[in-house]
Amino acid sequence: MKRNLKEIAAMCGGELRKPDDANLTIQGVTTDSRSITKGCLFIPLSGERFDGHDFAADCLAAGAGAILWDKAKGTPPGPAVVVDHTLEALQRLAHCYLRESKARVVGITGSNGKTTTKDIVFSLLSTTFKVHKTQGNFNNHIGLPLTILAMPADADIIVLEMGMSGRTEIELLSKLAKPEVAVITNIGEAHLMQLGSRLEIARAKLEILAGLKSGGLLVYDGDEPLIAEVLRESTTAKPDDFNTATFGLAPHNDDYPIGLMFMDDRTVFTSSAGDEAPLHLPLLGQHNVINCLAAIAVARYFGVTEQAIKEGLTEVKLTGMRIEVVKGHSGITILNDAYNASPTAMKAAIGVLENMKGYHHKIAVLGDMLELGPTENELHREVGCFITANKLDQLFTYGALGAKIAEGAAEHLDQESIHAYTDKAELISGLLSILHPKDVVLVKGSRGMRLEEVVEAVKSSELHQ
C-alpha cells in the first residue's frame, strides 16, 4: 500500500496528529517493530504480554514514516494518525484498500487442506493473472489485513486463507475481505475442543458466506453432508443470490476424480468436469486430489483454460512441511508431514503411505493430535483402528495420546509391529535400529510435538542394509 497520511487517516477513520503531516508519503505496513522499512506505517497492537506503543518511538527512529496511535495512550512520539483502537483501524484500513483496488477476492477456509488449496489456486490463477496470496499462515484477524495491505496495487486477484479457533472469526474475515469466490475444503475435527461438535465447526466455516458478494460462488466439499445441512439453516448468513460448485470423490459432485494413479512423486487423475487429458499433480495422496479439484473449480470460474490448468499444476509450490518428500543421506525416503495433525489429516497421510509402492518397509511415526477436546482419547484410538497391515508394516507412536493410537492399532497389527514411546530420544533410537535405506517413513503429529526432530534424525543417519 502506498498512500499519503491524510488518505490513510480517511481510510481507517482516524485523525492526523498534525495537519502538516497530511502529504507525508507512506509505503508498506507492519505491526512488527523488528521489520521496519523506510517510510512504512507502524501499527502498534496491544496484547496481554506486550504493547506495541512502547516501541513506537524506536520504530520512527529506525525509519518508519508514521504510526497509528491509540488515543488512550497519550501523545504519540512523531507523525501519527490517532484512532480509537489500532487493531480495528488496521482492519478498516485493509478493507478500504481492498475496496479501492481492482483485485477480485478468493477466500478459502476449512478444517484441513486450506493452505494446500490456497497454494494450488495461486499456481493455477498465476498462469493467467497477477495474483497475491496469504503467506505462511497469516490467516487470522491480524494476518489477513496485513496480507491485504501487502498486495501490489496492480494485482488482479488476491487469494486469502481464513483461519479460526471459534465462532464469529470467519464472519469477521469474510466481511472484511468481501470474497467473490468462497471455498470450504472440508469439515474435520480441528477445534472440537472449542466448538464441541462437527456441526458447530460446519457452522463456523459457513460464516465465510457472511461477506460473499451477491452473485458470487461457493465451492465446497459435496461429500460432507453437514455443509448442505448448514446451508439450509435459516440462521446461516448468506447473500440472497449466489452459485455453488461441489467437488469430492462421489459422482454426485460437479467434479470428481477419474482414474486415480498414485506415484512416488505425484498423483495422476482426470477431472470429470474437464477434458479427458490426465492431470499430473506433483503432490501425494487422494486428499490432495480433492484439494486440487476445489482449486480447479476456482480457476475455471475465472476463465483459466484447461491447458493453463495443466501447466499451473506443474508449478505448484507448497508451504513447508505438508507431506514433503525428503531423501535421507542413506537413500531412505521420508514423508515429512510434521506441520499439524487432526484425525482426518492423519488418516489421509496414512492413505498416502499405503499407496507408496516398491519399498522395503512402510513405517509411520505418529504423534499426539492436540486440542481435540474431551473425546481426544477416542479420536486417537479411532486413528489406530484405521491402521491395517496393508497400510503399513511398523507403527511408532509418540506421546500419551499417541499411545491411544497404538492401542487402537492393536486390533489389526501384530504387537511386534507396534512401538509406543513417551520419550522422543528413545523413539529415535528404536526407530533407527530397524530402518533400512529402502524404507519409506511417514512422520506426522501436531506442531507442538516437534516431530521434525525425528525427520532430521532419520535424514542424517547413515543406515546400512
Summarize the structure.
By secondary structure, the protein is α/β, with parallel strands linked by helices. It is 32% helix and 20% strand.
What does this structure look like?
Helix 9 (225-232) links the parallel strand 12 and strand 13. The chain folds into three domains: 2-86, MurE/MurF, N-terminal domain (Udp-n-acetylmuramoylalanyl-d-glutamate--2,6- Diaminopimelate Ligase, Chain: A, domain 1); 101-313, UDP-N-acetylmuramoyl-L-alanine:D-glutamate ligase; 324-460, Protein-Tyrosine Phosphatase, Chain A. The protein contains 16 helices and 22 strands. The protein is of the alpha/beta class. It has helices at 5-12, 56-61, 86-100, 114-125, 143-149, 169-177, 192-195, 198-205, 225-232, 286-301, 306-313, 343-354, 376-386, 402-409, 424-432, 452-460, and strands spanning 2-4, 15-16, 25-27, 29-30, 41-42, 66-70, 80-83, 104-109, 131-133, 157-161, 181-184, 216-221, 242-247, 257-262, 267-271, 279-281, 324-327, 333-337, 362-367, 394-398, 418-421, 440-444.
